[in-house]
Design a protein that fits this description.
CATH topology of the largest domain: Rossmann fold
Structural class: alpha/beta
GO molecular function, one term: ATP binding
Helix content: 25-40%
InterPro entries: AAA+_ATPase (IPR003593), ATPase_dyneun-rel_AAA (IPR011704), CbbQ/NirQ/NorQ/GpvN (IPR050764), CbbQ_C (IPR013615), CobS_N_dom (IPR025865), P-loop_NTPase (IPR027417)
Largest sheet: 5 strands, parallel
CATH class of the largest domain: Alpha Beta
Strand order of the largest sheet: 4-7-10-3-11
Distance between the termini: 54 Å
Strand content: 15-25%
CATH architecture of the largest domain: 3-Layer(aba) Sandwich
Keywords: ATP-binding, Nucleotide-binding
Number of domains: 2
Number of strands: 11
CATH superfamily of the largest domain: P-loop containing nucleotide triphosphate hydrolases
Radius of gyration: 23 Å
Protein name: AAA family ATPase
Family: Belongs to the CbbQ/NirQ/NorQ/GpvN family.
Length: 324
Amino acid sequence: MNDHTPDKTCQIRQRFGLDTDLEVPCFSAPGEHVPDVDPDYVLDASTTLSILAGFAHNRRVLLQGNHGTGKSTHIEQVAARLNWPCIRVNLDGHITRMDLIGKDGIVIENQKQVTRFQPGILTWALEHPVALIFDEYDAGRPDVMFVIQRVLETDGKLTLLDQNRVITPHPAFRLFATANTIGLGDATGLYHGTQPLNQGQLDRWHIIAVLNYLPPDQEKAVLLAKCPELNTPDGREQAESMVLLANLIRKGFVQGDLSTVMSPRTLIAWAENMRIFKNRALAFSLTFYNRCDDTEQPLIAEYYQRCFAEELPRSGKSPALFSS
């Protein structure tokens, strides 16, 4: 796999349906670590161009946006269409410097215990044709972030002090990251555990793209693609009302009336729960309403009534009493 490099060029106009003459190197056939293509995934045009620029020109791309908008999945789906191996790493508080760089470990050779260096995920990825995605980039520990900082440069060489070795990145190595905040910390209270990013490090990202909620018609298309049972005259009307409710909740959040926002992921989960419970109101309560603040639930119930012309049953009512 180390010597594996892109062996053809993809026409973006043909492969992604975008109005551009951009050409991107790609692999002729999928191999190990290439994500599966989701044919129903809706690619945002500007975000897709940013990601493709990262693949084509070895740009470091940071994708920022609200939760549930499909940031990581978007990168994976672009990689899948290029047959480019792709690996995601969640930078939670348990990821350490050694997890990224590696450490000495004891292995058995010729029936004897010997010490060998075991590369971490960053060290391994640098030497392979892999697109590495750092998820939750704004939640990484400071000591871990400084390890990443050096490889953000275009040459991206990594020095292993314990090994007296300098790693030169594979020509097909690419680096991406996703974050809910833009490096200045979280003022909304939605993203507990995130922290401000070092501005010197943030400056090393070549491209910073923003992926937030899709326009209503596109979000409806995503919902219908993920839940094809809604693709009927009545179902499409219901899907339109569901998207309208989600956007009312988001508007209420922006205006400061609500502290919880409804993401596209939650919207899809609501539709999937409708399939299980055969009941729209019950599915909405179990998916979103029950995790909202008690003082904010009346406003959300008002939004629901406005979209569906029916009252949302009070919390605690028997599911059998819910209207469909």
